[in-house]
Design brief:
The complex is a heterodimer. By secondary structure, chain A is mainly α. Helices cover 76% and strands 0% of the residues of chain A. Chain A has one domain: MetI-like fold, CATH 1.10.3720.10. The longest helix of chain A has 37 residues. In chain B, strands 6-7-8-3-9-10 form a 6-stranded mixed beta sheet, with helices on both faces. Chain B contains 7 helices and 10 strands. Chain B has a domain of 125 residues: Rossmann fold, CATH 3.40.50. In chain B, helix 3 packs parallel to helix 5. By secondary structure, chain B is of the alpha/beta class. Chain B is globular, with a radius of gyration of 17 Å. The chains are: A mainly alpha, B alpha/beta. Chains A and B meet through helix 4 and helix 5 of A and helix 2, strand 6 and helix 3 of B.
């Protein structure tokens, strides 16, 4: 039996897009701030920071889910916030999942481009950090778009955090990956397959959309 | 503009010195050539004079002001009058026109006439709206030089400006540098290529060897 493309599925898709969209956006913005801040350091520092985040990329999402669970558990350090088994718990976890990959994708690029842009600005007789930021972001626009895409794909495709910290509560914290897992465990392979196709389609559509938008984004940083 | 290079030493690593005990005083507008073999310190000296590098020892006085020990307002004022052109063109993503006009835009100036003039003069009209990724090395070099010329700086420092340029563009560039010098600017050129026209008309030649000033001839 096919799972009807009804309100139920639409809700799961919207929830998945919302949770992963917010988490990846937060990770993306944090990565930009971190990378810009550290890009002024020495090459050795950049290599060290990049190595740390490269190692963090390999941390399984179940471990991150466990960490978030521990933090948000009623008796845990942040238990008073009562966020466990809410979409916010998934957002926190997916933020931690996406941040390392976003930083790894950006940090060396920021270092190289900022160095070049700083040299350019000074050679043109200017000393302006505002101009420097604008030009660096403008120069990095295609990479920024790819990085967001990478972060979003990592978020929407992860299962460990959504299952452990979100709890896969139907109609509240269930997202595409958790629903696929639940349906599969219940033996509803066809339903799981349909949702899997929806997930792949969403990822591809997002990729096309972001790549198309990257040119418009480049215009946004046009210095006039 | 007067430039005093006073007992300048420069080290990139704190161990070896790329420049040692350089003393130069440039008082009059004109073109000054910095010559010397590879590793002589030409680019380093050019960057120190252009205030891109802070001397490890010694000081640089521009119009009598010690730049590295001056206030931030004074620094901004002095820096705005100095333009440096890199040996490898430093351009940003975008069209030739965007890159050529970048300096003017960043300084809040606008002068389409002068941009048009130089783009035509250096035969870049056909690639005016093309991305810099589609240009030849010579076109990239010309674009980076034009970006500096349109700003009409009081001090223009060019590192190997003739590399990648064809003879026509070299001739045009020498004319433009002479024009700029005639209007009161100091133009400092570090180059391996010694063009007779330039040597005959330049105001001085600074010869470096192994980071030291070998000779200084001011006409």
């Amino acid at each position: 039996m096919y799972l009807d493309l009804n309100e139920h599925i639409v809700n799961i898709v919207i929830r998945s897009l919302y949770v992963s969209g917010v988490a990846s956006l937060l990770a993306f913005i944090t990565a930009i701030v971190l990378c810009y801040y550290y890009s002024g350091r020495s090459r050795r520092s950049i290599d060290l920071i990049a190595s740390i985040f490269e190692a963090l990329v390999g941390v399984p999402t179940t471990i991150i889910g466990l960490l978030v669970y521990y933090l948000l558990y009623p008796n845990g350090p942040l238990g008073f916030m009562r966020l466990l088994y809410t979409p916010y718990a998934i957002i926190i976890g997916q933020f931690l999942v996406a941040l390392p990959i976003a930083v790894v994708s950006l940090i060396r690029q920021f270092y190289n481009v900022r160095k070049r842009i700083r040299e350019l600005i000074l050679s043109l007789g200017l000393q302006s950090s505002r101009v420097e930021i604008i030009l660096v972001l403008r120069e990095l626009t295609p990479i920024l778009a790819s990085t967001y895409l990478l972060a979003f794909s990592r978020c929407i495709g992860e299962l460990g955090v959504a299952m452990i910290a979100g709890g896969a509560i139907e109609g509240y914290t269930s997202v595409l990956t958790t629903t696929i897992a639940v349906q599969t465990s219940m033996g509803n392979f066809e339903e799981a397959l349909v949702l899997g196709l929806v997930l792949i389609s969403l990822t591809l559509l997002t990729a096309i959309l972001i790549k198309s938008l990257s040119k418009i984004l480049a215009g946004a940083f046009h210095y006039e | 503009m007067k430039i005093l290079v006073d007992n300048v030493w420069y080290s990139y690593d704190g161990v070896t010195y790329a420049l040692r005990n350089i003393n130069i005083y440039l008082t009059e507008p004109g073109i000054y050539l910095i010559t010397g073999p590879n590793g002589a310190g030409k680019t380093t000296l050019l960057k120190v004079i252009s205030l891109l590098l802070k001397p490890t020892i010694g000081r640089i006085l521009i119009e009598g002001v010690d730049y590295w020990n001056s206030s931030s307002v004074e620094k901004t004022r002095l820096k705005s009058t100095i333009i440096f052109v890199h040996d490898k063109p430093l351009l940003v993503r975008g069209s030739v026109e965007y890159n050529v006009s970048l300096g003017l835009k960043l300084k809040g100036l606008s002068s389409n006439d002068i941009i048009d003039y130089y783009i035509k003069r250096y035969n870049l009209s056909d690639v005016r709206n093309k991305s810099i990724y589609k240009l030849s090395a010579g076109q990239l070099k010309a674009a980076s030089i034009i970006r500096a010329l349109v700003l009409r700086p009081k001090l223009l420092a060019l590192d190997e400006p003739f590399t990648f340029l064809d003879n026509t563009r070299v001739k045009l560039l020498i004319e433009d540098l002479l024009n700029l010098a005639d209007k009161g600017s100091i133009v400092i050129v570090a180059s391996h290529y010694i063009y007779r026209d330039l040597v005959e008309k330049c105001k001085g030649v600074i010869e470096l060897f192994m980071g030291e000033l070998l000779s200084l001839k001011i006409k």
